Protein backbone atom coordinates (compact mmCIF):
# COMPACT_ATOMS: atom_id res chain seq x y z
CA UNK A 1 0.00 0.00 0.00
CA UNK A 2 2.73 2.45 0.99
CA UNK A 3 4.72 1.98 -2.23
CA UNK A 4 1.50 2.34 -4.23
CA UNK A 5 0.78 5.68 -2.57
CA UNK A 6 4.24 6.99 -3.46
CA UNK A 7 3.75 5.92 -7.05
CA UNK A 8 0.47 7.84 -7.20
CA UNK A 9 2.17 10.95 -5.87
CA UNK A 10 4.82 10.76 -8.56
CA UNK A 11 2.36 10.24 -11.38
CA UNK A 12 -0.20 12.87 -10.41
CA UNK A 13 2.31 15.61 -9.67
CA UNK A 14 2.92 15.93 -13.38
CA UNK A 15 2.04 19.08 -15.28
CA UNK A 16 4.66 21.77 -15.79
CA UNK A 17 2.54 24.57 -17.20
CA UNK A 18 -1.12 23.82 -16.61
CA UNK A 19 -1.57 25.69 -13.32
CA UNK A 20 0.36 28.33 -11.45
CA UNK A 21 0.18 27.08 -7.89
CA UNK A 22 -3.52 26.23 -8.04
CA UNK A 23 -4.31 23.15 -5.90
CA UNK A 24 -5.55 20.00 -7.59
CA UNK A 25 -7.35 17.27 -5.64
CA UNK A 26 -7.35 13.52 -6.26
CA UNK A 27 -9.16 10.68 -4.54
CA UNK A 28 -7.64 7.19 -4.38
CA UNK A 29 -10.05 4.26 -4.22
CA UNK A 30 -9.77 0.49 -4.08
CA UNK A 31 -13.00 -0.68 -5.62
CA UNK A 32 -15.81 0.93 -3.58
CA UNK A 33 -13.43 1.74 -0.69
CA UNK A 34 -11.67 5.12 -0.38
CA UNK A 35 -8.01 4.85 0.64
CA UNK A 36 -6.62 8.40 0.55
CA UNK A 37 -6.91 12.02 -0.57
CA UNK A 38 -4.14 13.92 -2.34
CA UNK A 39 -3.58 17.65 -2.75
CA UNK A 40 -1.10 18.76 -5.43
CA UNK A 41 0.26 22.21 -6.26
CA UNK A 42 2.15 22.88 -9.48
CA UNK A 43 4.31 25.88 -10.35
CA UNK A 44 6.29 26.88 -13.44
CA UNK A 45 7.62 30.41 -13.25
CA UNK A 46 10.76 32.29 -14.30
CA UNK A 47 12.65 29.14 -15.23
CA UNK A 48 11.97 27.37 -11.92
CA UNK A 49 9.57 24.43 -11.70
CA UNK A 50 8.30 22.89 -8.51
CA UNK A 51 5.73 20.38 -7.35
CA UNK A 52 4.37 19.86 -3.85
CA UNK A 53 2.05 17.02 -2.89
CA UNK A 54 0.30 16.11 0.34
CA UNK A 55 -1.44 12.77 0.69
CA UNK A 56 -3.34 11.45 3.70
CA UNK A 57 -5.05 8.16 4.40
CA UNK A 58 -8.81 8.21 4.62
CA UNK A 59 -11.58 5.67 5.05
CA UNK A 60 -10.60 2.01 5.28
CA UNK A 61 -6.83 2.56 5.17
CA UNK A 62 -6.99 4.91 8.17
CA UNK A 63 -8.71 2.18 10.22
CA UNK A 64 -5.57 0.05 10.08
CA UNK A 65 -2.84 2.72 10.26
CA UNK A 66 -2.86 6.44 9.59
CA UNK A 67 -0.57 7.45 6.78
CA UNK A 68 0.51 10.89 5.66
CA UNK A 69 3.19 11.92 3.22
CA UNK A 70 4.42 15.23 1.86
CA UNK A 71 6.68 15.46 -1.14
CA UNK A 72 8.42 18.38 -2.82
CA UNK A 73 10.55 18.45 -5.92
CA UNK A 74 12.39 21.47 -7.28
CA UNK A 75 14.07 21.90 -10.67
CA UNK A 76 16.48 24.86 -10.61
CA UNK A 77 17.77 26.96 -13.48
CA UNK A 78 21.24 25.40 -13.38
CA UNK A 79 19.86 21.86 -13.82
CA UNK A 80 20.03 20.69 -10.21
CA UNK A 81 17.05 18.66 -9.05
CA UNK A 82 16.06 18.31 -5.41
CA UNK A 83 13.51 15.91 -3.90
CA UNK A 84 12.38 16.15 -0.28
CA UNK A 85 9.91 13.75 1.28
CA UNK A 86 8.48 13.13 4.74
CA UNK A 87 6.18 10.29 5.74
CA UNK A 88 4.47 9.02 8.85
CA UNK A 89 2.95 5.57 8.97
CA UNK A 90 1.46 4.87 12.37
CA UNK A 91 4.29 5.61 14.82
CA UNK A 92 7.04 5.44 12.20
CA UNK A 93 8.56 8.61 10.75
CA UNK A 94 10.88 8.88 7.75
CA UNK A 95 12.59 11.70 5.90
CA UNK A 96 14.47 11.57 2.61
CA UNK A 97 16.42 14.08 0.51
CA UNK A 98 17.71 13.21 -2.95
CA UNK A 99 19.86 15.62 -5.00
CA UNK A 100 20.63 15.20 -8.70
CA UNK A 101 23.55 17.61 -9.35
CA UNK A 102 23.71 19.70 -12.51
CA UNK A 103 27.06 18.06 -13.29
CA UNK A 104 25.26 14.88 -14.28
CA UNK A 105 26.87 12.75 -11.57
CA UNK A 106 24.79 10.18 -9.75
CA UNK A 107 22.35 11.43 -7.10
CA UNK A 108 23.16 11.68 -3.39
CA UNK A 109 20.71 10.38 -0.79
CA UNK A 110 20.13 11.36 2.82
CA UNK A 111 17.59 9.02 4.48
CA UNK A 112 16.34 8.89 8.06
CA UNK A 113 13.88 6.44 9.62
CA UNK A 114 12.73 6.50 13.22
CA UNK A 115 12.67 2.69 13.22
CA UNK A 116 14.59 0.17 11.13
CA UNK A 117 12.75 -1.71 8.42
CA UNK A 118 11.18 -5.01 9.37
CA UNK A 119 12.34 -6.57 6.11
CA UNK A 120 15.35 -6.38 3.82
CA UNK A 121 15.44 -4.67 0.42
CA UNK A 122 17.07 -5.93 -2.74
CA UNK A 123 20.45 -4.21 -3.27
CA UNK A 124 20.94 -1.05 -5.32
CA UNK A 125 24.46 -0.67 -6.72
CA UNK A 126 26.21 2.66 -7.24
CA UNK A 127 26.57 1.83 -10.92
CA UNK A 128 22.85 1.30 -11.37
CA UNK A 129 21.90 4.85 -10.26
CA UNK A 130 24.15 6.60 -12.78
CA UNK A 131 22.18 8.38 -15.52
CA UNK A 132 18.91 7.99 -13.62
CA UNK A 133 16.09 10.51 -13.35
CA UNK A 134 13.57 11.23 -10.63
CA UNK A 135 10.08 9.66 -10.75
CA UNK A 136 8.51 12.91 -12.02
CA UNK A 137 10.57 13.30 -15.18
CA UNK A 138 8.72 10.73 -17.35
CA UNK A 139 5.33 12.34 -16.87
CA UNK A 140 6.76 15.84 -17.37
CA UNK A 141 8.02 14.60 -20.72
CA UNK A 142 4.72 12.90 -21.59
CA UNK A 143 2.96 16.24 -21.12
CA UNK A 144 5.42 17.92 -23.49
CA UNK A 145 5.09 15.11 -26.03
CA UNK A 146 1.30 15.37 -26.07
CA UNK A 147 1.47 19.15 -26.33
CA UNK A 148 3.49 18.61 -29.52
CA UNK A 149 0.80 16.32 -30.94
CA UNK A 150 2.77 13.11 -30.52
CA UNK A 151 1.98 9.86 -28.70
CA UNK A 152 3.07 8.94 -25.18
CA UNK A 153 6.13 6.75 -25.70
CA UNK A 154 9.36 6.63 -23.69
CA UNK A 155 11.83 4.63 -21.59
CA UNK A 156 13.42 5.86 -18.34
CA UNK A 157 15.89 4.80 -15.65
CA UNK A 158 14.22 5.82 -12.38
CA UNK A 159 15.64 6.25 -8.89
CA UNK A 160 13.67 7.74 -5.98
CA UNK A 161 16.34 7.46 -3.31
CA UNK A 162 15.30 3.94 -2.31
CA UNK A 163 13.89 2.09 -5.31
CA UNK A 164 15.67 1.70 -8.63
CA UNK A 165 13.58 0.57 -11.62
CA UNK A 166 13.26 0.92 -15.37
CA UNK A 167 10.00 2.37 -16.62
CA UNK A 168 8.55 2.01 -20.11
CA UNK A 169 5.57 3.96 -21.45
CA UNK A 170 3.59 2.90 -24.51
CA UNK A 171 0.71 4.70 -26.17
CA UNK A 172 -2.73 3.14 -25.71
CA UNK A 173 -4.64 5.45 -28.04
CA UNK A 174 -7.48 7.86 -27.42
CA UNK A 175 -10.44 6.98 -25.22
CA UNK A 176 -13.56 8.85 -24.11
CA UNK A 177 -14.50 9.45 -20.49
CA UNK A 178 -18.09 10.21 -19.58
CA UNK A 179 -19.26 11.46 -16.18
CA UNK A 180 -22.53 12.25 -14.45
CA UNK A 181 -20.90 15.18 -12.63
CA UNK A 182 -21.00 18.26 -14.91
CA UNK A 183 -17.91 19.89 -13.38
CA UNK A 184 -15.77 16.73 -13.60
CA UNK A 185 -13.65 16.01 -16.64
CA UNK A 186 -15.32 14.35 -19.59
CA UNK A 187 -14.21 13.90 -23.15
CA UNK A 188 -11.21 12.54 -25.05
CA UNK A 189 -8.24 11.20 -23.09
CA UNK A 190 -4.88 9.80 -24.12
CA UNK A 191 -4.14 6.40 -22.60
CA UNK A 192 -0.54 5.65 -21.59
CA UNK A 193 0.34 2.09 -20.56
CA UNK A 194 3.19 1.78 -18.04
CA UNK A 195 5.40 -1.22 -17.33
CA UNK A 196 8.05 -1.45 -14.61
CA UNK A 197 11.21 -3.57 -14.41
CA UNK A 198 12.44 -3.71 -10.82
CA UNK A 199 16.21 -3.31 -10.42
CA UNK A 200 16.69 -2.86 -6.66
CA UNK A 201 15.37 -1.35 -3.46
CA UNK A 202 12.26 -3.56 -3.27
CA UNK A 203 11.20 -5.77 -0.37
CA UNK A 204 12.56 -9.30 -0.24
CA UNK A 205 9.73 -10.37 2.06
CA UNK A 206 7.67 -13.27 0.79
CA UNK A 207 4.08 -13.88 1.76
CA UNK A 208 0.69 -15.03 0.59
CA UNK A 209 -0.12 -11.69 -1.03
CA UNK A 210 3.16 -10.87 -2.73
CA UNK A 211 2.37 -9.96 -6.33
CA UNK A 212 4.84 -10.37 -9.16
CA UNK A 213 5.46 -7.47 -11.51
CA UNK A 214 4.02 -9.26 -14.60
CA UNK A 215 0.72 -9.54 -12.71
CA UNK A 216 0.45 -5.75 -12.34
CA UNK A 217 -0.79 -3.34 -15.00
CA UNK A 218 -0.57 0.44 -14.71
CA UNK A 219 -2.50 2.86 -16.89
CA UNK A 220 -2.33 6.65 -16.93
CA UNK A 221 -5.00 8.77 -18.65
CA UNK A 222 -4.26 12.37 -19.59
CA UNK A 223 -6.83 14.89 -20.78
CA UNK A 224 -6.95 18.58 -21.61
CA UNK A 225 -8.24 21.01 -19.01
CA UNK A 226 -8.19 24.72 -19.83
CA UNK A 227 -6.09 23.94 -22.85
CA UNK A 228 -3.37 21.94 -21.09
CA UNK A 229 -2.71 18.22 -20.71
CA UNK A 230 -3.23 17.01 -17.16
CA UNK A 231 -3.36 13.57 -15.46
CA UNK A 232 -7.04 12.69 -15.12
CA UNK A 233 -6.95 9.13 -13.86
CA UNK A 234 -4.41 6.48 -12.92
CA UNK A 235 -5.13 2.79 -12.43
CA UNK A 236 -3.16 -0.08 -10.93
CA UNK A 237 -4.70 -3.49 -11.61
CA UNK A 238 -3.54 -6.66 -9.83
CA UNK A 239 -5.05 -10.01 -8.79
CA UNK A 240 -6.27 -8.44 -5.52
CA UNK A 241 -8.26 -5.77 -7.36
CA UNK A 242 -7.93 -2.35 -8.98
CA UNK A 243 -6.79 0.85 -7.28
CA UNK A 244 -7.88 4.04 -9.03
CA UNK A 245 -6.79 7.64 -8.45
CA UNK A 246 -9.01 10.20 -10.15
CA UNK A 247 -9.03 13.95 -10.46
CA UNK A 248 -11.93 15.41 -8.53
CA UNK A 249 -14.16 18.30 -9.57
CA UNK A 250 -11.84 21.24 -10.31
CA UNK A 251 -13.80 23.21 -7.70
CA UNK A 252 -13.30 20.46 -5.11
CA UNK A 253 -12.16 22.04 -1.84
CA UNK A 254 -11.54 19.17 0.55
CA UNK A 255 -8.30 19.92 2.35
CA UNK A 256 -5.79 17.27 3.33
CA UNK A 257 -5.19 17.98 7.00
What's the average pLDDT? 81
E-strand count: 13
**Shape, principal axes of CA atoms:** globular
Terminal-residue CA separation? 20 Å
What is the oligomer described by this structure?
single chain
Residues in β-strands, percent? over 45%
Provide the structure class. Answer: mainly beta
Give the radius of gyration: 18 Å
Helical content stands at 10-25%
Strand order of the largest sheet: 7-6-5-4-3-2-1-13-12-11-10-9-8
What report would you give on this structure?
By secondary structure, the protein is mostly beta strands. It has 3 helices and 13 strands; from the N terminus they run αβββαββββαββββββ. The chain has a 13-stranded antiparallel beta sheet with strand order 7-6-5-4-3-2-1-13-12-11-10-9-8. The longest helix has 11 residues, at 2-12. The radius of gyration is 18 Å and the shape is globular. The two termini are 20 Å apart.
List keywords for this structure.
257 residues; 13-stranded antiparallel sheet; 48% strand; disordered C terminus
Write the layout of secondary structure elements.
Blueprint: H1 2-12, E1 24-30, E2 33-45, E3 48-57, H2 60-64, E4 67-75, E5 81-89, E6 92-100, E7 108-113, H3 137-147, E8 154-159, E9 164-177, E10 187-200, E11 217-225, E12 228-238, E13 241-247
Antiparallel strand pairs: 1-2, 1-13, 2-3, 3-4, 4-5, 5-6, 6-7, 8-9, 9-10, 10-11, 11-12, 12-13
